[in-house]
Amino acid sequence: MSSRLKAGLLATALCALPLLSSAEARSALDERVDATLAKLDRAQLEALIVTHIPEMMQNPAAAGDAQHAAAWSPAMPEHGIPAITETDGTIGVGARIQDSRYESTAYPAALASAASWNPALLEALGRSVGRDARDRGFNILLSGGTNLTRDPRGGRNFEYLGEDPLLVGRLAGFYARGAQSNHILATIKHFALNDYETGRTQYDVSIPREAAMESDLLAFNIALRIGKPGAVMCAYNMVWGAYSCESKPLLTDILRRQWHYPGYVMSDWGAVHSTEKSAEAGLNQESGAEIDTAIGLGGTGMLQDTPLSAETTSRIAAAIKNGTLFAQAFYAPGQLASVVSDESLRAMARPILYGLFATGAEQPIEKKPVDRAEGYKTALEAAQQGIVLLRNEKSALPLSKSIRSIAVIGGHADKGVISGGGSPTVLPFGGNAIPQKGEQIMSQQVWDPSAPLTYMRRLAPQAAISFTEETDLPKAEQAAKSADAVVLFIAQWSTEGRDRATLSLTDAQNKLIAAIARANPNVTVVLETEGPVLMPWLDQVRAVVQAWYPGSAGGEAIAQILFGDVNPSGHLPLSFPLSENDLPRPALPVAPPLTEGRPASFQIAYDEGADVGYRWFARTDRKVLFPFGHGLSYTRFTYDHFVVKAERAPSASVTIRNDGDRDGCDVVQLYAEGQGIGRRLVGWQRVSVPAHQSRDVTIPVDLQTIARFSQSDNRWHVTPGSYQLRVAHSAAEEGLTSAILLKGTTIAGTEPRSE
Predict the structure, then answer these.
(1) In terms of Cα–Cα distance, which of 619, 594, 590 is closest to 604?
(2) What DSSP string describes 620-682?
(3) Residue 391: its H or E element
(4) Which residues contact 387 (CB under 8 A, 6 or more apart)?
(5) Element (H, E) at 532
(6) Model's pTM, two decimal places?
(7) Strand-pair category, 203-206 with 602-605
(8) On the chain, which terminus has fewer CB atoms closer than 10 Å, C or N?
(9) Burial code of 116-128, b = ≥16 C-beta within 10 A, e = fewer?
(10) Given this model, what pLDDT does residue 75 score?
(11) Can you name the residues that pair with 18 across neighbouring β-strands?
């Protein structure tokens, strides 16, 4: 054991500050953690810093009724340490197999919820998902995606919250806060700069430290301060030449020393490549150690049901002994003695206990049926607030309930709504609306059984509403010709593990939309996609509704929006580009083949730096299809009386007026630019305004969003001088502007946020 490793691990423990704000509670928690830690022997420490995939263990029955958990470790009841039972929870309690016992509420995709721009809603979602998970017997929630959308083709974008660090950070923080109100430990991930799925275990991100701090890392910083999650999950990719889970700059210098984060760092499943480097960098817990076995030996991390050979087992033992593979304590406790000392293991285990005790995750769990009714209520509210009305020419929407006929076409709208794939997959109540072969569900397309057609017929019982599959083009064209209006559903599946090759829909889908638009002038396109798509047919249709992956209540929410029972209020949390050629990297990265031993790495340069999304498009003067922040309503909002105050806590005030005949909800967005800073979101407020009334809104300016990070002193500095504040309906709108004179300010970037 090197003295450098020992010192690094001790520093990790000593610089940690508590999750709790009360000094008295903090002291009591510290004492409890230290007292518990002192009683643990070597085997218990090793058990605490490694979790296992029960289905891949040599003895799955050891996990009891947690055999389908994402990961598990045994309880130590004599020390008040619970069994660690983890579940994916990005859009609800994750399912690994098709079994009605594991059905749960599927909430809208994170990106769909982000379109609400509503921190209170994200807190409610976290509270609801956390409740479901605890009722199912879990105490660790593996959700809280905080990576920025640097490329709209990213396969996991639906798990994240958009392209702006202030928006993403606040929403992720409130989600974690809500989840942990259930005495369940929340995780934010994937730390850090894990913005592609292509070659995700191989690529090495190149970006200036300052630019990273002002973009992706700022989102994590804000989320940690608001939500105080018990754990951070390090990512698959490399950053600045080292794997994320072996990155001392990320895990020790930034997370611990700069941000004073007191919780623990867990690895992603298959993200650990060595013992000494990971431990020295600040990793506390190896997750799903069985997958790391495969990757550490040159595998892909997907062992599935293949048993380990005697030769492989021998190589694992040798790798453990020489320190090139992490703990793997499930093989033989104590094998790490020559690599990591008892003292260092205690330093690694301390933040784990801290996270468990600070969040109350160690409290006994009373398993009970998931509250389906309450979950549906929250899912419906989230879907309603997240659906974005992108286009509405000639007031095509809302549809009249007295309309004679509507042709509903495509997207399996008669059966359900599509969901994203991979580890966040939820088996919804009622099962997959479109059954698929195989017991494993994480690699399947899952359709939540919430059929828009059913709810449309309920809301307009007098209308003749037909349905035609998109595969029968002649029949669909005939249905469109004879109907008063057409609602055309387009579904596109995205999943963890691969990026979308293009932003285009399929040729068949684009041809279908064009053909239906020729057959009927009154066409509404409903997009069930993870994110942006190209729209060569946009000018040929009257209305476009972005429904995302809307979850178990998605069909009802879509119908309510279409008929005006709900006034749309969603706003885009990311930009819709005109072309892949307008992106910082027009072509997706190409990963070299995996090889025996460590995978061959390759570099991705984030040359856009901190200018992600709308900032990039503004910097390069590129037009977009729909801008960040865009969202239409069935009423009209106008702004006036814009006043800024350059006090110690600068702010802007504006009067928002609803000039229409419907009550509505708007997102008032505040942007700033100047002193070398391009346009940046510095605040917003979601506000409800009754018809023909007005509301006064005051928005504080978040100074950290326009400050520049300095690596020389690890602080944020607001350059003194004149800035232009802009209140607008989107990042691309001119809106109302006013100059504000700011004094030079230094920000530590560690102050707690109580928003």
Answers:
(1) 590
(2) TT--EEE-TT--B-SS-EEEEEEEEE-SSS-EEEEEEEE-SSS-EEEEEEEEEEETTEEEEEE
(3) strand 388-392
(4) 112, 115, 545, 546, 547, 548, 550, 557, 558, 561, 568, 570
(5) none
(6) 0.93
(7) parallel
(8) C
(9) bbbbebbbbbbbb
(10) 92
(11) none
Dihedral sign, Cα of residue 381, residue 385, residue 391, residue 393:
positive
Sheet holding 664-674, edge to edge: 677-689, 664-674, 721-728, 736-742
Residue with tokens 């062992």, as numbered in its chain: 303
What mean pLDDT do residues 284-297 have? 70
710 token code pair: 């300095």
Spatial separation of the C-alpha atoms in residues 738 and 368, rounded to whole Å: 55
pLDDT band at 302 (very low <50, low <70, confident <90, very high): very low
Q: Quick one: pLDDT band at residue 409, thresholds 50, 70, 90?
A: very high
pLDDT score for 60? 81
- In contact, 140 and 129? CB cutoff 8 Å: no
Element (H, E) at 7: helix 3-14
pLDDT tens digits, residue range 583-592?
999 999 998 8
Residue pair 697/654 in contact (Cβ under 8 Å)? The answer is: yes
Q: What letter does residue 488 receive in the DSSP assignment?
A: E
Instruction: Name the token pair of 189.
Output: 């991930």
Average pLDDT, the chain: 90
* Per-residue model confidence as pLDDT tens digits over 686-706: 999 999 999 999 999 999 999
The tokens for 567 are 């006034």
d(CA 199, CA 238): 11
- Residues contacting 103, CB < 8 A, separation 6+: 95, 427, 428, 429, 430, 431
Q: Is the pLDDT of residue 331 over 50?
A: no
From residue 748, alpha-carbon distances to 2, 30, 193, 227, 460 in Å are 33, 25, 22, 18, 56
